[in-house]
Design brief:
- The chain is α/β, with parallel strands linked by helices.
- The protein folds into 2 domains: about 5-230, Rossmann fold (3-Layer(aba) Sandwich); about 250-415, Four-carbon acid sugar kinase, nucleotide binding domain (Molybdenum Cofactor Biosythetic Enzyme, Chain A, 3-Layer(aba) Sandwich), CATH 3.40.980.
- Helix content is about 40%, strand content about 20%.
- It is built from 15 helices and 19 strands.
- It has a 16-stranded mixed β-sheet that branches. Strands 6-7-8 form a 3-stranded antiparallel β-sheet, with no helix packed on it.
- Strand 7 (about 125-130) and strand 8 form a beta hairpin.
- The longest helix is centred in the last third of the chain and has 17 residues, at about 400-415.
- It is globular and about 65 Å long.
- The N and C termini lie far apart (about 45 Å).
- About 50% of the residues are buried.
- Mean pLDDT is about 90; it is low at about 320-325 and about 415-420.
- GO terms for molecular function: ATP binding; kinase activity.
- Keywords: ATP-binding, Carbohydrate metabolism, Kinase, Nucleotide-binding, Transferase.
- InterPro entries: 4-carb_acid_sugar_kinase_N, 4-carb_acid_sugar_kinase_N_sf, NBD_C, NBD_C_sf.
Length: about 425
């Protein structure tokens, strides 16, 4: 079975979610991103295409270009999509399949976006979130691309043919499931949509499909990546750079408006576990000319320099406010640049936010170390600075997630250095 994998993702947190699954199995895994110097060569490379806010045509073209540049024969391939279908997953998949077939390789997409550990399941070919159809959730109301979350219809919208593999077939045994996958490949279908409501469903799918790795690609989120990694032979532990004592406080940036991230930030502030310094969204729109800019940037940097973990949420944000999310992420990165030089570590919610800040600081990749909890990987930055970094998708986790993640980081550095915790 292959030890070398390429993961193409539409954002940074998703790339890290998938890559960390392989790091847990002893494979060297790193994350890089579009537009930056290539991350260090490792057995598993996850690349953030930074395509979620692009047009369907732009997102597809970027994925096809990355595939042509980084994929080689014998490599396993995962196309990471958002588990709630944000962005342009169908257009990206169509372009990725097209690029694979240019080389004469048969390619069947195994579409399994479920991530049961974070409440995402696929039932009857439709995405559900915490048991409810995705279309009924606040997240869908705030941000969606397609008319429905019925995956066969989503694929049909870009001209891809697909068949549903229902839950009873997924759970019906490895031999019938493998036969269904081979039949779809032989018929020339573009994709199969796979139901999954529990981690064991994804594990069964991984075992049945891995023998077809030369002819398929897997499309999904951290759930299918974890299942594929678990189905591989376990490797010995790989020596990896480890966090040293934190030289400054941890910078906690909450750039997401998702309810889970806002609740976690509020809980952290209520526990007085970090200095709270809010960044109004109108300040980011105004830019450095605003008289509030420099004092706020200096205040955040000073808090970190004093060794205090510092929570920086973007406030007064609404769907309309964040419609220009890429520009706001860049502005936030510029505001936090002085803080970045003083931070001992980074926790960031929202891939666009994390990528903009790290790129601004001269970081071109992350070497992955461990998973603090589902959807929260820990790694070490690669580039101009080397500090621990944790990323989290905006809608993952609960109100304790950030607090638990910070505790894990401090305990880890304490264990490695023998120094007392703060």
């Amino acid at each position: 079975m292959t030890r070398n994998w390429l993961i193409l993702a539409d954002d940074l947190t998703g790339a890290a979610d998938c890559g960390i699954a392989f790091a847990r199995r002893g494979l060297e895994a790193s994350v890089g991103w579009h537009g930056a110097e290539a991350a260090s060569a490792t057995e598993v490379l996850a690349i953030d295409a930074d395509s979620r806010r692009l047009s369907p045509e732009g997102a597809g073209a970027r994925h096809a270009a990355l595939l042509r540049a980084r994929h080689a024969p014998g490599m396993g391939l995962i196309k990471k999509i958002d588990s709630t279908l944000r962005g342009q997953p169908a257009a990206e998949l169509a372009a990725t399949l097209g690029a694979l077939r240019e080389s004469g390789r048969p390619a069947l997409a195994i579409l399994a976006p479920a991530f049961p550990a974070t409440g995402r399941t696929t039932e009857g070919g439709r995405v559900h979130m915490n048991g409810a159809p995705l279309e009924t959730t606040p997240l869908w109301a705030r941000d969606h691309t397609y008319e429905s979350a019925l995956l066969t219809e989503v694929l049909a919208s870009v001209g891809l043919s697909a068949r549903l593999i229902p839950l009873e077939l997924v759970r019906g045994g490895e031999i019938p499931l493998a036969h269904a996958l081979r039949s779809a490949l032989d018929e020339g279908l573009d994709a199969v949509v796979c139901d999954a409501a529990a981690p064991g469903d994804l594990e069964a799918l991984a075992r049945a499909s891995l023998p077809l790795s030369e002819s398929v690609l897997w499309v999904g989120s951290g759930g299918i990546a974890a299942a594929l990694a678990a189905a591989l032979p376990e490797s010995g532990a790989v020596a990896a750079p480890a966090p040293t004592a934190l030289r400054g406080g941890v910078l906690i940036v909450v750039g997401s408006i998702a309810e889970a991230s806002r609740a976690a930030a509020a809980h952290l502030a209520a526990e007085d576990a970090a200095e709270l310094i809010e960044v109004p969204v109108d300040l980011l729109r105004a830019g450095p000319a605003d008289p509030r800019w420099a004092p706020l940037a200096n205040r955040i940097a000073g808090s970190l320099a004093s060794g205090r973990d510092t929570l920086v949420p973007v406030t007064d944000a609404s769907v309309a406010d964040l419609s220009g999310g890429a520009a706001l992420a860049v502005a936030l990165a510029e505001l936090l640049a002085p803080a970045g030089a003083r931070m001992g570590g980074l926790f960031a919610t929202g891939g666009e936010t994390a990528c903009a800040l790290l790129s601004h600081l001269g970081v071109h990749g992350i070497r992955l170390l461990e998973e603090v909890e589902p959807g929260v990987p820990l790694g070490i930055t690669q580039g101009a600075i080397e500090v621990p970094v944790m990323t989290k998708a905006g809608a993952f986790g609960n109100e304790e997630t950030i607090l638990r993640s910070l505790e894990r980081l401090h305990h880890l550095t304490q264990d490695l250095t023998g120094e007392s915790a703060r």
